[in-house]
């Protein structure tokens, strides 16, 4: 089964599982110090929109584009924001095929880079999609045996923090912080990262 089919299959039970494992709280704790309240935001690999939801719950901008190649995941994301005063644009696409019409002040991506065939190129593309002073906020799987359990189902990858920071640096991004989640599965599987654009780059 390919990656998109796997996530189409997982969509209905995704929120329950992610909430139970503690990622929703972890996302909120991470984002609360990094929100930007007004300008356009992209959530790349949004899935059912849980990272975007944590962003908005933390006071982040409600002008938000949700992008994901899984129609079933995106359907849940769309319904999550249907009644909220949120300006949502939903785009069914991979990052690789995405052609944005404008740049973003903030780009979010939680556990999505791990599915891009060329993660360094993915970070470079995200950097080009940022405004001149934009921020890239990532949650990325790290080396830990727990990730093998997730790999059995989703065949994702994981990266050491220094590797990620190196790819970001090559893409004209400076490192602001690496966030260690404090408890539970998020503390074992992942780190949060905030990068800021430092070089002038053009639209993707
Ligand atoms: C582990 S889920 C994360 C979903 C959400 N960000 C969260 O934290 O709950 C990974 C998501 O990345 C999406 N994805 C897979 N390959 C992708 C690609 N090449 N470009 C963008 N998104 C992709 C999947 O469809 C899936 O919804």
Characterization of this structure:
- There is one protein chain.
- The protein is an alpha/beta fold.
- The protein has one domain: Rossmann fold (3-Layer(aba) Sandwich).
- It is 39% helix and 25% strand.
- The protein has 8 helices and 7 strands.
- A 7-stranded mixed sheet has the order 3-2-1-4-5-7-6, sandwiched between helices.
- It starts with a helix and ends in a 7-residue tail after the last strand.
Brief description of this entry?
39% of the residues lie in helices and 25% in strands. It is an alpha/beta fold.
Please write out the topology.
Blueprint: H1 3-20, H2 23-31, E1 41-44, H3 50-57, E2 63-68, H4 71-80, E3 87-92, E4 104-110, H5 119-128, E5 130-141, H6 146-154, H7 161-170, E6 173-180, H8 184-189, E7 190-197
Helix pairs in contact: 1-4, 2-3, 5-7
The site of S-adenosylmethionine has 22 residues, from helix 1 and helix 3.
